[in-house]
Design goal:
This protein is an alpha/beta fold. Helices cover about 35% and strands about 25% of the residues.
Length: about 325
C-alpha cells in the first residue's frame, strides 16, 4: 500500500484549516503531518486543534524535514515566491496560495526552479477545480451563446480592517492582488487567451495600495473584457461573471466560491434556462488534484507556467493604473 502524501504547513493561518486540513480528512492518502509558524505557541495551538503530529521551530526546519513530501504555503503574498523556491530546492512539492508571487519576475523564477527540480507547483485557485468551472467552459465551447465577444468578471468582498495585511504594500497587498487575481484568472480561462490591458482605474486606501480596481482588456482577435475587484467599496459583495456572445449570454453568480452557492443563467440558441452545479467544497477537488499531480503526474491547470501569465496581467493592470508592481525575492529576510 502506498504511503500517504505528507504535507507540512508554513504558517498557522486560518485559511489552512479551510483549504487544507478539512479537505484532507476526506482523503486517506493525504496526511497533514507538520506545521511551523513565526510564533511557535500559535503553531502548537494550531497543531493541537487539528491533530497535527509535529510542530517545527521554524519554516526552514519544516522544509528540511525529510519526512515531508510537500508544502502548503498560505503566507503573505510577498513571501510566496521566496519560500516556494526554498521548498522546491529542498525537494518538496508546493501548493501555494494565490497569487503565486508578488510580480511576474518572481513567478518566472518560481517556474524556472520548478522545472529544474522536477517538482509540482500548483497555484491555489481552488474554484478552477470545482465542476462549475468545467461546466461554464462546456457551455461556451458548445456554441450555445455564439462566438464570445465580451467578458465581465467582478469579485469584491468587504475588508474593513485598514491594518490588514491585504492593505500593506510591502506584503504584496492590494485588491488586485487579493481578489482581482481571481477575476483575471477567470477571464483568461473562459476566453482561452491572454489579454492586453487597455485601461485601469484604481481607488486607493493608501499610497500604491488599491482597495478597488476597474480594468479594461482587449484580446488579439478583437474580443474585450472588463474586470472590477474591491476590498472596500460602496457595494459589499461582487461575485459574478457574464460572457456575452453573438447570439446570447451566460451569467454566473458566485463563480469563485461555488461550494457556497452558484447559479447559471444561459440565454442562447435553445432559449433561456437556469442551472446549479452540485459538488463538494472546491478545496477538496483542489487537494485531490494536487495529490494526483504529485503521485501520478496528472497535469494541473493552475501550474507555475499559468501563474506567470496571470501575474503578467496583474503587473500590467498596476502599470496602467499608474501604480508600482509588488514585491521582491525577499528570501525570508524577516522570517526563518
Amino acid at each position: 500500500m502506498r504511503s500517504a502524501l505528507r504535507i507540512g504547513v508554513l504558517g498557522a493561518a486560518p485559511l489552512a484549516a479551510v483549504a487544507l486540513v478539512r479537505p484532507s480528512r476526506r482523503m486517506a492518502d493525504v496526511e497533514i503531518a507538520a506545521v511551523a509558524a513565526r510564533d511557535p505557541a500559535r503553531a502548537r495551538r494550531f497543531a493541537g486543534r487539528y491533530g497535527i503530529a509535529h510542530v517545527h521551530a521554524s519554516y526552514t526546519a519544516l522544509i528540511a524535514d525529510p519526512a515531508i513530501d510537500a508544502i502548503y504555503l498560505p503566507l503573505p503574498n510577498s513571501l510566496h515566491a521566496a519560500w516556494t523556491i526554498k521548498a522546491l530546492q529542498a525537494g518538496k512539492h508546493v501548493l501555494c496560495e494565490k497569487p503565486l508571487a508578488a510580480n511576474a519576475l518572481e513567478a518566472t523564477e518560481v517556474a524556472r526552479v520548478a522545472h529544474a527540480t522536477g517538482r509540482v507547483v500548483m497555484e491555489a485557485f481552488h474554484y478552477r477545480y470545482h465542476p462549475l468551472a468545467h461546466r461554464l467552459k462546456t457551455i461556451i465551447d458548445s456554441g450555445e451563446i455564439g462566438h464570445v465577444m465580451h467578458l465581465d468578471a467582478e469579485f469584491g468582498v468587504p475588508l474593513l480592517r485598514p491594518n490588514s495585511i491585504q492593505y500593506r504594500y510591502e506584503l504584496g497587498g492590494g485588491a488586485t492582488m487579493d481578489v482581482g487575481c481571481y477575476a483575471i484568472n477567470l477571464i483568461r480561462y473562459l476566453a482561452d487567451s491572454e489579454p492586453e490591458v487597455i485601461q485601469a482605474q484604481p481607488r486607493l486606501i493608501r499610497p500604491n495600495v488599491d482597495r478597488y480596481m476597474a480594468a479594461n482588456f482587449r484580446f488579439a482577435d478583437g474580443r474585450t473584457a472588463h474586470m472590477v475587484c474591491a476590498l472596500l467599496s460602496t457595494r459589499l459583495l461582487r461575485l459574478s461573471a457574464t460572457v456575452h456572445g453573438t447570439v446570447g449570454k451566460l451569467h454566473v453568480t458566485f463563480p469563485f466560491l461555488p461550494h457556497l452557492y452558484n447559479h447559471i443563467i444561459v440565454r442562447g440558441l435553445h432559449g433561456d434556462r437556469h442551472e446549479h452545479v452540485e459538488g463538494l467544497p472546491s478545496y477538496a477537488y483542489q487537494l485531490r488534484a494536487f495529490a494526483d499531480a504529485v503521485r501520478i503526474g496528472t497535469p494541473v491547470p493552475t501550474s507555475a507556467t499559468d501563474a506567470v501569465k496571470n501575474m503578467q496581467v496583474i503587473d500590467a493592470v498596476y502599470r496602467a493604473a499608474g501604480l508600482h508592481s509588488r514585491g521582491f525575492l525577499a528570501a525570508g529576510s524577516n522570517q526563518s
